[in-house]
Structures are given as structure tokens and as C-alpha cells.
Specification:
This protein is an alpha/beta fold. The protein has 6 helices and 8 strands; from the N terminus they run βαβαβββαβαβαβα. The strands form 2 sheets. A 5-stranded mixed β-sheet has the order 4-5-6-7-8. Strands 1-2-3 form a 3-stranded parallel β-sheet, covered by helices on one side. It is globular.
Length: 199
């Protein structure tokens, strides 16, 4: 039984990013002995109801949330309460209404746990409403522009703010063979060829 919890899982509801259906995510989680999973599709909660149904059927605990991308940074927002779900939906609505949407402009965080790899965003959110339920997301992937690229430098800055780290896998596909489909989807989204998709 796995004790690690994936807190950033993208299904095919993360358009032009994720490759797996909620049913496939549930089946793989069950096969691997994963008991808790956080579906955090990009900029929407389109697949949450279906994932909730699948999770109940295969007896895994879903942690609901979404990855919200702003012009300045991105953040994984995990729902703790009904108020948190309402605040996440309001944040996503703002994201889709405002062409110049920025996360560092602030948002209502009650009932949400926020994970981000951006120290600048952590600093801005902490200044607005404290460090409670804020975490530095340590990933093996992309580092936001104008951020220290080395994880240790970001870790030191976050700890100076009183913010703890959390490891985030940022899952977009389930098996090594799905990498090419993920690259193809990213190439379509970026209007480029697969060999020009950033690693």
C-alpha cells in the first residue's frame, strides 16, 4: 500500500496536457494500492464529479482541487471545506474572465490549501493573509521565470517566510508510453512541432 499521496494529478480534462481518463486514474490507483489521490486539472473542475464517482467505486479518497495558472505563476489549490470549494470556483471564474489574471493580486483562501513553486507568489499571499495553508511545491519540472532555479535556494527563501515544502509529482500521464501523446498534445496547444516542445 502506497503512503505517498499524489497532490497534482491531471486527467484528460486538463485540455492539451493530461492523457488519462478519470476511470484510468482510478484503475491505476487501485492496482498500485494508492488510497488517496488529488485530481487537480488545469484551470477547471470539469472532471471532478466524474472523478468523485470513480473514486467512490474503487474506494479511494479524492482530495478535490485544481491547478490555477496566472500570468505570473501557477498554484495547486486543494479544497478542505465547502467554503474552499466556493473560493476555488470564484478564483477559476476570475481566471477565465480576466485576460491579465495574476495570482499575486490575491484571492480568498479560506478552506483552501495552496501549493506553488513560486517563492514570489508565496511572499505575496503570505503578506495578504498569512502563511497558514501555504506550501512550497518542490517539483522536478518547470521553475517560474525570475525564480531561483535551484530547489535549495527556493527552499531557504520559503523557510525564511515560515513556509514548509511539499513534494509534488505533477502527473500528466500514467505510463512511459503515454509521454509521446502528452508531447503531441503540448505541441498542438503551443502550435509547434513535437521536437520543439520544451522538455
Amino acid at each position: 500500500m502506497s503512503r505517498f499521496v499524489h497532490l497534482a494529478v491531471h486527467s484528460h480534462y486538463s485540455l492539451m496536457r493530461g492523457t488519462a481518463s478519470p476511470e484510468e486514474l482510478g484503475a491505476v490507483a487501485m492496482r498500485l494500492g494508492i488510497t488517496t489521490l488529488a485530481p487537480t486539472d488545469t484551470d477547471g473542475v470539469y472532471g471532478l464529479v466524474r472523478f468523485w464517482e470513480v473514486a467512490k467505486a474503487v474506494e479511494i479518497r479524492p482530495i478535490l482541487g485544481a491547478e490555477v495558472r496566472g500570468n505570473d505563476a501557477s498554484a495547486i489549490c486543494l479544497v478542505e471545506t465547502d467554503a474552499g470549494y466556493a473560493n476555488l470556483c470564484q478564483l477559476l471564474s476570475r481566471k477565465h474572465r480576466e485576460p491579465a489574471f495574476r495570482l499575486d493580486a490575491g484571492f480568498e483562501r479560506e478552506g483552501l490549501v495552496v501549493l506553488t513553486s513560486s517563492v514570489a507568489l508565496l511572499r505575496a499571499l503570505a503578506a495578504q493573509s498569512g502563511t497558514r495553508d501555504l506550501y512550497l511545491a518542490l517539483t522536478a519540472g518547470h521553475t517560474p521565470a525570475a525564480e531561483p532555479t535551484h530547489s535549495l535556494a527556493r527552499l531557504r527563501e520559503a523557510r525564511a517566510l515560515g513556509i514548509q515544502p511539499v513534494a509534488v509529482g505533477d502527473v500528466h500521464f500514467l505510463a512511459p508510453g503515454d509521454w509521446e501523446m502528452h508531447r503531441l498534445l503540448r505541441a498542438i496547444a503551443l502550435n509547434t512541432t513535437r521536437d520543439r516542445v520544451p522538455a
